[in-house]
């Protein structure tokens, strides 16, 4: 009964509601404003903690991300769904991961955070969500014209364990090299002393919540990109009901916790350059569509042994380094000096990928 529940409409609604509620609670416990959970932002912080970029305000080894993969891995093994596979256009997926991250950091959030920002009252998120839908819609046009990255091939069990082991190693690092008060570096890790990277819930609470979300999201196949794709292509509302539940649950929880502050101006980790909020999420949405899943879904698939999803995840982490090292990412002051050019280049690359890669007959 438990195995089948998450495949139902109530199962996906419960998953979305749990994510929305727990994200708001994580914010109350210390995570940044309207960023209780943001896969893109958290992978950016991990990139910074490893020293791949040196933006001092966004460096922290976020345990939620590791928890998503570990929770998905546990669920996959419990329900005999751990299926190692890979080999479906890995370099394309890596590039898509890079540009997905760049687009998300121009907007300042992944699809999850866009919805959580809306649930917290940030009306700039409406523009971002419209861009996300637009990017996914462009992706559906490519799908209808035969776009396909090819089938993954069965792989050895050890291959499916690679990203979960990497994430386990990431999780061990802050335990071995914990933050020293007033110090920006401890051993091999970098830690933010101010800004969003310095704001975080207690490590073990974040990890436990991440594992729980990873477990139920693996069971329900929760995916924000898939929700809009299925609605556009097949008029199916199953996944979309989970997305709606996430927004509603975060809104209600934020109201209860006193975290709902409606408006456009002075929203946490947000800017009001609406054209580029929109365009950044068009790029991100298109990259997610072409890769076959939103960033959260890619982490859950990685826990199931999907090496192609793991490549996308690593592409996003590298993309975060590019975004901050080359001044592409936005800040509350607006888009970075080279962010506009990066979005345009990313759209050109993604359209090229979508238009030229076809399934062989």
TrEMBL record:
<feature type="transmembrane region" description="Helical">
    <location>
        <begin position="338"/>
        <end position="357"/>
    </location>
</feature>
<dbReference type="Pfam" id="PF04143">
    <property type="entry name" value="Sulf_transp"/>
</dbReference>
<feature type="transmembrane region" description="Helical">
    <location>
        <begin position="91"/>
        <end position="114"/>
    </location>
</feature>
<dbReference type="InterPro" id="IPR026366">
    <property type="entry name" value="Seleno_YedE"/>
</dbReference>
<feature type="transmembrane region" description="Helical">
    <location>
        <begin position="7"/>
        <end position="26"/>
    </location>
</feature>
<feature type="transmembrane region" description="Helical">
    <location>
        <begin position="159"/>
        <end position="177"/>
    </location>
</feature>
<feature type="transmembrane region" description="Helical">
    <location>
        <begin position="307"/>
        <end position="326"/>
    </location>
</feature>
<keyword id="KW-1133">Transmembrane helix</keyword>
<protein>
    <submittedName>
        <fullName>Selenium metabolism protein, YedE family</fullName>
    </submittedName>
</protein>
<dbReference type="InterPro" id="IPR007272">
    <property type="entry name" value="Sulf_transp_TsuA/YedE"/>
</dbReference>
<keyword id="KW-0812">Transmembrane</keyword>
<feature type="transmembrane region" description="Helical">
    <location>
        <begin position="238"/>
        <end position="261"/>
    </location>
</feature>
<feature type="transmembrane region" description="Helical">
    <location>
        <begin position="126"/>
        <end position="147"/>
    </location>
</feature>
<feature type="transmembrane region" description="Helical">
    <location>
        <begin position="197"/>
        <end position="217"/>
    </location>
</feature>
<feature type="transmembrane region" description="Helical">
    <location>
        <begin position="60"/>
        <end position="79"/>
    </location>
</feature>
<keyword id="KW-0472">Membrane</keyword>
<feature type="transmembrane region" description="Helical">
    <location>
        <begin position="273"/>
        <end position="295"/>
    </location>
</feature>
């Amino acid at each position: 009964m438990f195995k089948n529940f998450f495949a139902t409409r109530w199962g996906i609604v419960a998953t979305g509601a749990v994510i929305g509620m727990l994200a708001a609670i994580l914010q109350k416990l210390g995570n940044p404003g309207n960023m209780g959970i943001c896969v893109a932002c958290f992978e950016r912080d991990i990139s910074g903690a490893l020293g791949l970029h040196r933006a001092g305000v966004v460096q922290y080894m976020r345990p939620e991300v590791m928890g998503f993969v570990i929770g998905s891995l546990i669920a996959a093994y419990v329900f005999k769904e751990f299926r190692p596979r890979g080999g479906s256009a890995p370099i394309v997926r890596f590039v898509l991961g890079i540009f997905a991250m760049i687009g998300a950091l121009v907007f300042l959030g992944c699809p999850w955070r866009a919805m959580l920002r809306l649930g917290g009252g940030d009306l700039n998120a409406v523009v971002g969500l419209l861009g996300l839908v637009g990017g996914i819609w462009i992706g559906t046009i490519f799908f209808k014209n035969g776009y396909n990255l090819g089938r993954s091939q069965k792989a050895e069990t050890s291959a499916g364990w690679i990203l979960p082991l990497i994430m386990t190693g990431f999780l061990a690092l802050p335990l071995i090299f914990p933050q020293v008060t007033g110090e920006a570096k401890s051993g091999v890790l970098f830690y933010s002393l101010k800004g969003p990277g310095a704001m975080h819930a207690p490590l073990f609470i974040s990890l436990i919540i991440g594992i729980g979300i990873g477990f139920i999201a693996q069971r329900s196949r929760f995916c924000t990109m898939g929700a809009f794709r299925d609605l556009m292509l097949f008029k199916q509302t199953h996944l979309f009901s989970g997305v709606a539940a996430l927004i509603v649950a975060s809104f209600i929880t934020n109201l209860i916790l006193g975290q709902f502050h409606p408006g456009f101006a002075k929203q946490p980790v947000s800017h009001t350059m609406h054209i580029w909020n929109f365009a950044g999420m068009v790029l991100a949405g298109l990259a997610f569509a072409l890769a076959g899943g939103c960033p959260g879904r890619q982490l859950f698939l990685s826990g199931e042994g999907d090496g192609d999803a793991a490549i996308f995840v690593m592409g996003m982490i590298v993309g975060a380094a590019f975004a901050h090292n080359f001044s592409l990412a936005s800040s509350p002051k607006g888009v970075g000096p080279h962010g506009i050019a990066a979005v345009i280049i990313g759209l050109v690359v993604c359209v090229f990928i979508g238009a030229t890669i076809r399934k062989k007959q």
